[in-house]
Design brief:
Length: 205
């Protein structure tokens, strides 16, 4: 990728905007961001499988997410920002009980340090105590991914957080590409990167 002549201006602006915030970045972090901007490239994925969509509230979004989880036979890899939905947790626990390997990376700040209700910690603890591989990530200001990768074939994504608010009151969307192994492979690479940058979650209530 050819370096952008606007990159120094972009980084300077970001540095100024972050300087006084809780997310103030060190120079090393800005260098890493610059490298990511310069080297990132989109991934072309061939169309395959079938696509299904849902919306919320009252548009089938949560039901579609639960159906994706319930379809799993071998493994589920999940990336999450807010993780407080009792129905999503219950579906993942059902999957684990039937022998599905469940792995989750969740945002540390949203689910731990800023979780005044305790719902995030309780949800993560329930999965960890059931033998799921649960990790939390603080490598980014916000870990804003909402993704499920099921059986290395199916990908669920969209704006939908795994929370009650997303299901009941927020305007959200969910898209599922069933049986597209190439798309799943691309998202697995993204999952693996975030997994390496995360740390194990210890059950707590």
């Amino acid at each position: 990728m050819k370096p952008s002549r606007f990159l120094p201006v972009i980084l300077a602006g970001l540095a100024l905007s972050w300087a006084g915030s809780a997310f103030a970045f060190k120079p090393s972090a800005l260098r890493e961001l610059a490298e990511a901007i310069e080297t990132a490239a989109p991934v072309a994925v061939p169309a395959a499988g079938s696509i299904e969509v849902g919306f919320s509230p009252k548009g089938g979004a949560e039901a579609l997410v639960l159906r994706v989880i319930d379809s799993a036979k071998t493994d589920i890899k999940a990336l999450s920002y807010s993780f407080t939905s009792p129905r999503v947790v219950a579906a993942l626990l059902r999957a684990a009980k039937r022998g599905v390997a469940v792995s989750l990376v969740a945002d540390y700040k949203n689910n731990i340090t800023d979780d005044r209700s305790g719902k995030g910690r309780a949800a993560l603890s329930a999965l960890a105590e059931a033998g799921c591989d649960v990790r939390v990530i603080s490598a980014y200001p916000i870990h804003h991914d909402k993704v499920l990768i099921v059986d290395r074939q199916t990908v669920e994504l969209g704006s939908f957080n795994y929370s009650d608010a997303a299901a009941r009151v927020n305007s959200e969307n969910v898209l599922v590409n069933w049986n597209n192994s190439a798309l799943a492979k691309a998202y697995l690479a993204h999952f693996d990167r975030n997994w390496r940058q995360s740390e194990p979650f210890r059950a707590r209530y």
